[in-house]
Amino acid sequence: MAKKPTAPSISIGIGDKDRAAIAAGLSKLLAETYTLYLTTHNFHWNVTGPMFNSLHAMFMTQYTELWNAVDPIAERIRSLGHPAPGSYAQFAKLSGLPDAPAEPPKAMKMVEVLMQGHEAVARTARALFPLVDKAGDEPSADLLTQRLTVHEQTAWMLRSLLAE
């Protein structure tokens, strides 16, 4: 029987257990980012009402940013030596975010749902910091810092729309 070719082992200064734990946390972040992307794109398509133009454009900016975020997260998981999740079933299992509502909500409810989604993804990213700090995983810490900046700022902007 022919020997199956294998890649050389990973020796980047982060142990196997830490790499596995970080990859698992980043997989949850990836799943939640993708879920939030789908919800935001759904709302872009389905928003109605007096704020249609501004919300339609804002949602497009937001879903484009989220779409561009999934690849770096997945590639960081791969850099740590683990497969990146990439199916609806995997994302549904990993994500703590609800799926987009079957019936599109009113415009301001969309804003509220997205604000809550960005805050939830920020919490997921923030929860990984102790692990990446302990492991000395600066690239993952940098990625998490970038994602936190986007999610916290977007949540603030959405929250501002909800103010009376």
TrEMBL record:
CDD domains: DPS (cd01043). Residues 24-163 form the Ferritin/DPS domain. InterPro entries: DPS_DNA-bd, DPS_DNA-bd_CS, Ferritin-like, Ferritin-like_SF, Ferritin_DPS_dom. Gene3D superfamilies: 1.20.1260.10. SUPFAM superfamilies: Ferritin-like. Belongs to the Dps family. This is DNA starvation/stationary phase protection protein.
